[in-house]
# Entry
Amino acid sequence: MRGAEPFAVLASRVRASEKRILEALSRRGIAHRHIDSREWWHRLGDRVPHPIVLNREIGLARATYAADALEAAGATVVNSARATALCGDKWRTSAALVEAGLPTPRTALGLTPEAALTALESLGYPAVVKPLQGSWGRLVSALPDRQTAETVLEYVAALPSPQARIVYLQEWIAKPGRDIRVIVVGGEALAATYRRSEHWRTNVARGAVSELCPLTPDIAKLAVRAAQAVEAEIAGVDLIEDETGAILVLEVNHGVEFSGLQQALGDEVSVADRIVDHLLEKSRSCSE
Amino acid sequence: MVTCPECENAVVPAGTPVIGEIVECGECASELEILTLDPIRAALAPEIEEDWGE
# Structure
């Protein structure tokens, strides 16, 4: 069967989003294989039998190394290894956004917690400290004043991983109790949702409520440009509105979950089908 | 239908189940992973790891 299945979906957890994608592939009669990343291994120098691999691995380390290995073995990986590496690291994402000239909160990096405390004097309070890697709002902390910053950074200094002691700081944006998540596939913004919460962390994983947001040309354009800045072909772009109503790009997610958005969208757009369309387009362009 | 190994509740996956699918027990909210389809069996899904996310 080697070579019989041009498409593969790499995932360890088949969440609702992955299931929708697998169902779309099956429904459209597209030969494919689901590869469980917990069982996948690769011998250096071998070619892989799946020219197009959709990387839906939930673990960042596994997703990054898998993308690297698959690309080296001749596969086209969506999202690419470079996009995964850029999106998976908040500092690299911010740097790419600024490089592309996109609006994003003022951001600083401290190589030690002590340096971060100095950087905060320049950035000003309130501020936010975030782990370089991580999702769902975990360990994101608000720093209303220097006293809190000293306390939080003391904990950061005690973390065992050297990378965890590199400190990513951002100015506090007084957003209106919501942020905006835009799904971008193949350079097109498909839909947007507001994520509303009483809590300042408006992650759905933390209980934020998702509802459809009008996809204005400005929002669509900004989201597409943000996805392009980090080379993500499939992306969940997070935007926030500041006090003046200006929209800033916060981050770009390379393994976006979309089942909640799909429920809100109904039959209007099938995100899974658009992802499959994009894979087919990649396949065509690779064989030309 | 699978039996939740945590609370023995009967859990019915939505649509056609697939191997590796994560389903939530409506009774105890445990996350279950479907291991086999014939017969259909599930076990508690792996714990969330530090670098998991979207």
